[in-house]
Structures are given as C-alpha cells and as structure tokens.
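WARN  no MSA supplied for this record, continuing single-sequence
INFO  ligand: FE2/S2 (inorganic) cluster
INFO  echoing inputs
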Amino acid sequence: MPKVEITTDKLNLDVKEGYALIDMCEDHDTSILFGCRDGACGACMIKVLEGADKISPMQDDEKDFLETMAALPNERLACQCRIYGDVKIAVSE
Ligand code: FES
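INFO  complex generated
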C-alpha cells in the first residue's frame, strides 16, 4: 500500500494505489488547499520531494498551467495527482 508523507503537516498516510491526492487530503486534516479542483487556479500547488515517478503523469493542461505559473520542475497540482507508490510531498510556498 503506497505511503504519502506530507512534510508540511508531519503526516504519514497509507493510501490505496491509484487514490486521488485530493480525496486523501479531504479525508485528513492537511494544509494543502484546494480551489477550483480542476487544475485552473493553482491553490493546490505542492512540491514533490520524493517519488515523482509514483504519481500519475502530468497531462498537457497541468503542464501548460505550471509553465504559466513559472513553477519549479518538482511542483505539481495536487488536484491532478493520483498516487501509485511511496511519495513525499510538501505544500509549495
Ligand atoms: S484546486 Fe485549483 S488547481 Fe488544484
């Protein structure tokens, strides 16, 4: 079972493979914020510290949005991520 560590919240959670990160955050008290829930507002930006290859691949819309936001290479939109293995993430500042 994949493990998600959110360093910002000092949380370690077990999730089902393929589980949506947004659902995990809503099931627990995390500091990752959500707005549009559709990859269009940037409220849910996270940094992937470990396990980037264990998160669902970035689609063109997310890639385009992150480029517009001048995001770092390890940043993702949490509302667009599904978990397939152990990952360590933090809230982007
Ligand atoms: S909640 Fe708006 S981009 Fe993720």
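Strands lie at 3-6, 11-14, 19-20, 45-50, 75-77, 82-83, 87-91.
INFO  checksum written, moving to next record
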